[in-house]
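CORE FACILITY INTAKE
Project code: CF-77B
Contact: R.S. (postdoc)
Sample description: multi-component assembly, two entities in total
Requested service: structural model of the whole complex
Turnaround: standard
Below are the sequence entries exactly as provided by the requester. Do not edit them.
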Amino acid sequence: MIPTPDPAYRVGDSVLPGDDVSAAVRTGDVSKIVLGPGLRRLGSQVVVSRAGVLKMPKNNVFVVDAYQKRYIPVKDEHVVGVVTNASSDVFRVDIGASVTASLSYLDFEHATKKNRPNIQVGDVVYAKLSTAGRDMEPELVCVDTHGKAGKLGKLEDGFLLTCSLNLIRKLLSVNCPLLQALGQKWPYECAFGMNGKVWIKARSVKETIAIGNAIYESELMDNAQIKKMCTNLGLVIDSM
Amino acid sequence: MAQRRAHKRNLSKGILDMKFMKKSKEKAEREQEDLESRDLFETDITKALKSSEGAQFIIEHSMVPIERLLNGRMSFKGMNPDVERLMEQETRELREQEKARERLQSNKPEISDVDMAKRLGKTVSKKFSNSNKNKDSDDSEEDEDDSEEESSPPKRGKFLKPADD
């Protein structure tokens, strides 16, 4: 391979897998550098592992950001999944990753060997990833360390839709007004998985469709536009 | 491997399962997991990773802590009261953490001097006034504990022995 001189990448540039961004990462205070998703260490170098834009969301924190729909499981993230197979001791759950995740029937609140949780094929669960390695099948749990379900568990009724991972991150950031604004209009519940699956449950079909469309539409809007859309949506739906 | 585990004392499972040991249990589990993964990948860890050069990098696979994302399970206007209660609890904890962080950054003590003077002034003065009134030293010490409560609990009458028939 012919060694090519590394172009000096900076924060905000598009990068490709294999690009060496050591120089860009080491510009500021170099005592503590956080490498987020999309960056990997290779000896003393910092190398890009996915195509996208090199970004610095916080001081000395670097990530490669790109529009993404395929979920890569990460430990401790919360996901929404669909049960595809309920065999003897584990449920297979589709979380949109390259392989299905496994969910043991014992990892539910109050579940014992005799008392199996009531989960059928096609049910939707909100679960947490307990293991997620590159070479292993991801595993889910529906309890915390003390066997309490908390917010995890089976999601009854409702409606499931799929969107990009970027939209999930946008809606779950602290300063996004959409979910609060919709919550002031109608009572509803939702579960946003980091894997791009969204579960909504509202009182009627009309409201469910309205909330779902609002979520899809907000992908390319800024905060002011989102607020405006929510007030308009409220007026339209209420007049119907 | 076994030796390393042996000389470190761990809390027993029974203790860790107690209600108030939640944080310690999480910590113990994390340590155990670290130990296991270190054993598993010991051969893969190169010298460069272990050196000071490696210590400057922190690898974070998830965007959740980087962007401080909220938990995705939410409920509004009483659709699911259980979830709403948990949400409230979470925001309260978040606010407390924020406060603690601010305090740490601003380098202010947890209780300001004025607050301490006010509080201590009350209890100490009470102690002195009590000890002046009744010179019993035992009494004044007891009062220290329940200074928030009323200073003089209603006195119970002396037990009267019923007359034998």
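Facility notes:
- Residues 60 and 136 of chain A are 31 Å apart (CA to CA).
- Chain A has a mean pLDDT of 89.
Invoice: internal transfer
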